[in-house]
Amino acid sequence: MPNKNFFFVKDFLTRDLQRKDLGEEVGSLNYIGQSTHYFIRTKALQKHSFLPEITPETALPIMPNSFVKMNLKQGDILISKDSNIGEIVILDKDYPNFMLSSAIYRLPIIENKYYLLAFIKHSIFREQLDFMVPKGATIRHAKTMFLDCKIPMPNKNAENVINFVEILTKAIINKEKLIKERHEAILKAIEIELLENQKANKFRFELPRINELEEVGRLDTNLYRENFKNIVFEIQNYKNGSQTISDLGFSLSRGQNLQVSNIGESIYSKKYYTNFYTLMLPKFLSKYGTVDKIEYLGNPNDLKTLQKGDLIFGAEGFEKGRSIVIIEEQSSAITNIHGITIQQKEHDVNKAIFVKCCLDYLRNKGLIDLYAVGGNGGSLAQKYWEIIPFPKFDKIKQDEIALFYHNPDIDYQTKTFTLESFLEQDSQYNLLAGIYELDKTAKQLKEILNQTIDNIVNEKEIKIYFEN
């Protein structure tokens, strides 16, 4: 590194790491289907997020008598020493009933916490750690080698530069927290509207009749179970009734087949080049309706692109049901055959967002998994879409729900931001922002943050500004 002014990671700690800072193993015999206590795996620490990803895959329910109390608090910093070594997150809230795996350290750090967090998230840290840690046959083990990685410090205007890095990091974390909250608000708004506006009919479970079996055409399916029928009943028993995806004016098609036999040779890239297609794959979508990662594809053919108001829906695998709405006009965005493209002639963004929010609600209730067929997580075949019910919310309610995802009437006034006023002005913007705006501005700030860190590492001039 050109910048020779640095501390080691261990210099930021308030004391030496101890055994109590490391998680514990509970053993797979203690994994159960449901519990009040959970075991956080290293998968919860992901490159794309400053916050932990708590899902059924990353936080396993365990026997309460195997639980080790760790008193995990908001603001704690967790780092992985094994598997996805060097991945780091900060806790967005208290996690009293969660414990860490023995591959995760909780770092004792108070001063310059967010500066250290930003640098460990940056590729310069990972490159150092990759060089230090032996290449394992399966899982790599960093032990405590990460403590010897260098964290460069600014040489000029150091106090303001450190403050700038920390403010950017805090702002990104705030936006990631609010994205989670907006998503919860969407699910809650749909639930309340449904349950408070039911017709007088009462649900009564019955085993399937022969005509129902004939209509579905299958015996090996989840569509006859009581929980499934109860949720479907609540949607169909809504005061205005329900409708299908085609009733809403949408049609379905598979994404672009990217095989060489179909489109010829292509060039894949992590960097954008002129005339390349933007590749939005279902596996890169988050459950909140954002894109965690984008790749680019160079191909001379006229491929099937996405339009404003289209949805990409991940229809396969264990993470199926994730979706995203194309908010702005796209000239060259495509998805692959693993995604279903849900299209409409009107290109009505709010209607598309409403459909996306309903799909999120069904996914949260477990219905998307129940509709699916096949192994390895299953697949939601197109023929099942006509039996998926969408509640007939009026336009006012649809727009009210859509506002949690996208607010078109606000502008991110980066030119007015200063180091002293930024966090307050950014918080005011966040109050009105939807998931789309929060994600978009968080990505802008990440670019500025990464460029600032690059400049510190390479001893270049550092500009304190908030637009890229």
Overview of this protein structure:
The chain is of the alpha+beta class. It is built from eleven helices and 18 strands. The strands form six sheets. The protein has a four-stranded antiparallel β-sheet with strand order 10-17-14-15, with helices on one face. The protein has a four-stranded mixed β-sheet with strand order 11-13-12-16, with no helix packed on it. The radius of gyration is 24 Å and the shape is globular.
Briefly characterize the structure.
The protein has 468 residues and is of the alpha+beta class. It has helices at residues 113-121, 123-132, 158-195, 210-216, 226-236, 260-263, 349-364, 367-371, 395-402, 422-432, 435-457, and strands at 6-8, 38-40, 59-61, 77-80, 88-90, 98-100, 104-107, 150-152, 242-243, 250-254, 267-269, 277-279, 295-298, 311-314, 323-325, 333-334, 339-344, 390-391.
Main β-sheet, in a few words? 4 strands, antiparallel
Q: Assess the beta-strand content as a share of residues.
A: 5-15%
* Structural class by helix and strand composition: alpha+beta
The global form is globular
- Compressed to H and E, one letter per element, the order equals EEEEEEEHHEHHHEEHEEEEEEEHHEHHH
* Count of alpha/pi helices: 11
Binned, the helix content reads: 25-40%
Strand order of the largest sheet: 10-17-14-15
Q: Please, what is the oligomeric state?
A: single chain
What is the gyration radius calculated from CA atoms?
24 Å
**Mean pLDDT score:** 91
**Span of the ends, CA to CA:** 25 Å
How many DSSP E strands?
Answer: 18
Parts with pLDDT < 50 across at least 5 consecutive residues: none
